[in-house]
Amino acid sequence: MVAVAKRKTIDPAFGRRLRELREQAGLTQAQLGERAGMLYQTVAKLERAEREPTWQTFIKLADALGVDLNTFRGQTAGLAGEEASTSTETPPRPMGKRK
Q1: What whole-number distance in Å separates Cα of residue 84 and Cα of residue 75?
Q2: Domains and CATH numbers, the chain
Q3: pLDDT at residue 72 in the model
Q4: Burial state string for 28-40 with b = 16 or more CB within 10 A and e = fewer than 16
Q5: CA 90, CA 81: separation in Å to the nearest integer?
Q6: Which of 26, 38, 42, 52 could form a disulfide with 95 if both were Cys (CB 3.0 to 4.6 A apart)?
Q7: Pairwise CA distance, residues 37 & 10, whole Å
Q8: What's the burial of 74, exposed, middle or buried (CB within 10 Å: 0-12/13-18/19+)?
Q9: Rg of the Cα trace of the chain?
Q10: Low-confidence residues in the chain, pLDDT < 70
């Protein structure tokens, strides 16, 4: 018998929020990828929930978009000149290799 690894399901909420923020910033996937120092294919996979961001990727994307990390919680705050709202929602937990 052959053991088959169970495929982990990735929550699509981060990808939807990433796309929303990228479009609000008026950027293409290629432009965001260039700003964040990654390939546009990586941005596309993150948006489609085919790939889960590492913490480092999460930070790079927020910096490239010019937003606070809390903006990925689903708030509209963090874009140029906007005040952060007070939400009790838990931020997405980027997955990566544990050290």
Answers
A1: 8
A2: 13-69 (1.10.260.40)
A3: 79
A4: ebeebbebbebee
A5: 23
A6: 52
A7: 23
A8: middle
A9: 15
A10: 5-7, 74-99
Q: 66: part of which helix (H) or strand (E)?
A: none
CB 60 within 8 A of CB 37: yes
Count of residues making up the chain:
99
In sign, the C-alpha dihedral spanning 21, 25, 29, 32 is: negative
- Compute the distance between CA of residue 76 and CA of residue 97 in angstroms, rounded to an integer: 29
Q: Which residues contact 79 (CB under 8 A, 6 or more apart)?
A: 21, 24, 25, 66, 67, 71
Please give the model's pTM, rounded to 2 decimal places: 0.67
